[in-house]
Amino acid sequence: MNKYVERIYNGVWKENPSFVQMLGLCPTLAVTTSAINGIGMGLSTTVVLIAANIVIAALRNLIPERVRLPGEIVVVASMVTVVDMLMEGFTPDLYKSLGIYIPLIVVNCIILGRAEAYAMKNGPVLSAFDGIGMGLGFTIALVLIGSFREILGTGCVFGVQVLPDSYEPITIFILAPGAFFVLAMLTAIQNKLKMPCATNGSVKKKKKGGCNGDCLSCPSHTDHQAEQEGK
């Protein structure tokens, strides 16, 4: 697989920041009362991710080791400020809906995590694709959670009625507890499908030879026990 495509694939599927790594759950749970909010938060985070990764990767050899983290935070904060002002100017309704969570992108562990783990060790182009992949994965996760909550809580998605008028909305899904319920359901589906994630880890195969840690069922242990009983 092309290394650039691989970065996008990893962010969207293999290393999805929300469903696999379980990162950035604060905005994931807080702003996903609707699908449009999920798109807004996801895309704004994606822009910050791409821009911050490019700048940090370009300056990685110039930033002194002792101020590495403060330097990364300054870069991320600068990008978030630009995005915050652009959203306030061009999408005021969405900006008001997302509220304080736009400035809080600065402390989103996805941003700092990718800056520290990838951008500081790779070039600007690869880091940009890494930001695209992680940002798209985060956006998809937020849209999925927001869509489920909006459909179950209001019967609509993106403001369009999708369930019949006879449907009685389950209002708890557009409240704070609803975010935990939906995330729990999606994580349960992920566990059922045996997909690697922060809650179940990778499915490990048993060793064909050597000690597998199960002493009671080990043939050597059984033979030794029989020998002791014979004595």
Please write out the topology.
Blueprint: H1 3-14, H2 25-30, H3 35-59, H4 68-90, H5 92-98, H6 109-119, H7 124-154, E1 156-157, E2 160-161, H8 176-192, H9 219-230
Antiparallel strand pairs: 1-2
Helix pairs in contact: 1-7, 3-4, 3-6, 3-7, 4-5, 4-6, 6-7, 7-8
Question: Which key features would you list for this structure?
Answer:
single chain, 231 residues, mainly alpha, two-stranded antiparallel sheet, 9 helices, 2 strands
* SSE ordering: HHHHHHHEEHH
Shape: globular
Name the poorly predicted regions. 203-210
Terminal residue distance = 62 Å
Q: Strand order of the main beta sheet, please?
A: 1-2
Largest sheet: 2 strands, antiparallel
Helix content, binned percent = 55-70%
Count of DSSP H/I helices: 9
What can you see in these coordinates?
β1 and β2 (160-161) form a beta hairpin. With 231 residues, the chain is an all-alpha fold. The protein has helices at 3-14, 25-30, 35-59, 68-90, 92-98, 109-119, 124-154, 176-192, 219-230; strands spanning 156-157, 160-161. The chain has nine helices and two strands, in the order αααααααββαα. It has one domain (3-192). It has a two-stranded antiparallel sheet. Residues 203-210 have low confidence and may be disordered.
